Structure formats: C-alpha cells, structure tokens
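Troubleshooting: if your tokenizer reports a length mismatch, compare your output against this known-good record of 302 residues.
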Amino acid sequence: MLAITAIATGLSGGLFVAYKKFQEISATPSPISEQGEARLYFDEPNVSAYLKVAFKEDDYGVKADYHITLEGKAARKGIGFTLLLTGGAQYLEHFQGGELIPRENGCPSSHAYVTSEVKQYSCAWIPLADSWPPISGTDPRAQIIRGIIKTNSIGSAWASVTTSRIKAIVSSTAGKRTYFSLPAVGTTYLPRSLDGRQIEFDITKEVKGFVPQRLDLSIDYGKIPVQSRIESIAPDLVQAGQFLWFQEDAGLIRAEGSTVDTVVEEAGQRVLFLLGLYAGFVAGVIPPLMSVGFRLFRKTRT
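Known-good structure output:
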C-alpha cells in the first residue's frame, strides 16, 4: 500500500511541475507606465526639419539619440532649437550610486550632450504650469535642451542630441511575450489653417518657441529578433525586420506594441502537449492503483 501511495504521489508531483512550467511560459508581462514625451520647437517660424530618433536598450538602461536636420531655407542660416523632455524621456542626473553627474553647460556631461554643427547649447529645468498650448505630463517640470544650429561648409545644418540614459523603462517581458512602449516623439500639433503654426507660444514665460512648419519624423528601435513574432504594433512599421516608423508632417507619435518569442512559444506548446499526455496517463493509472491498494489493504485487515 505504501509503494502504491508513493507512485501516486510521484505522478501527481510530476503533473504539478509540468503545470508550473506552463504557467511560467504563459505569464503576462507587467504593464508599462506612461513614458513621457520629447517635443521639438524652433526659435523662428517657417522652419522645416527632419527629426530622426533612435532608442537603444541594453542591460544598463535606455539611450535616446535625436538627430535634427534643417531643410530648405532654414539650412542656410543659424536657427535656435528647443528639445523639451517630460516624464520617462528625461535624462538621468545622477549615477547609479546617487552621485550627481558633473555638469557642462548645465547638462550632465556623460548623460546629455549635443554634438555636430551647433554654436552653443545648454540644459535646464522649467515649470510646465505656464506653458501654452498646455503640455501634458505627470511631472510639473520638464527638461529642455537648447542650442543654435549653424550651417557647415557644405551648406547643411544639423545637430545631434544624445541622452545616454533616460528614466523610462520601455519594455516588460514575462514568459513568451514582451510589451514595449517608447516615449512619444515629435512636436505640438497645431493646424495649418490661419497660419496656426506661425504663432509664437510660451514654453515658459521666458522661453518662447514655434512649432515646425513641417516636421518629418522617423523612430528607430532596432532590429526585430529573428525568433520574435509581432503580436500588435502601432503605428505600422515601414520596414520588415526593423522596429522603424516614419511619418511625414508629423505631430506627436508614440510607438508601442508587443512581440512573442516563438522559441519560448514552441516550448510552451510542447509542455502543453506533454501535460495533456501526462494528465491522461495519471488519470488512467492512479484510480486503478488506488483500487488495487484498497483491496490489498482490506485483505491484510481480514
């Protein structure tokens, strides 16, 4: 009787282990909170530009690169720009140990900097309470990175702004599934009618800005892993095998979606198949074993 009980217990234990493995593979990732925004403005009206943004995620966090290229007449003269960062799009100001990062032009030297054709640049904190049109954000303050783009010797005008570590956690993985949500990127939407884009508005009481006359925008989040399958995505991708979005005359774009690791998914299907076989085997074996054990127990008692 003890041997039969041990066999039944072992079979039941194996079934429980297989079920726990299936639960791990089928787990749902934690939801991702609001990721903040990065908005581009200029110091003058009638400026057309191309904003190319790249997000790179590694074991240490998320890096964001903003490449601004002036187009048309704007490329032939120096123009000031303002990159406004809210929420998760903001750069970190402290090292992991809590030490304040050294400053250069008000920017943390290793975590936020501007390169290329720029005369000067600076970083600062500003209140959002006085902004018009209102700028959303749970934090009452925003970071701004400002600079003056100059035209180089071949007639092009561009600037690269790097925030090597931002606050956002842009992805969440559990089991076979990964959720991702990037900071929204672009500018404030104003209608073209009535020259709405040529009206100077308040970023703060001291800082003014103009929405670009036209802003073409691309967002790059890297290659899609070979073993990953897109489950949901918004907006639509523009290139197979690449997390790449593009929009002409853009307002504000937030890229997000979910992927499934097909290797883990196939492992889950195998576990599910074996789980079914195992459950059927256990269901077919344990009752007869218990019946035999019960009869033997009764014989030994008589």
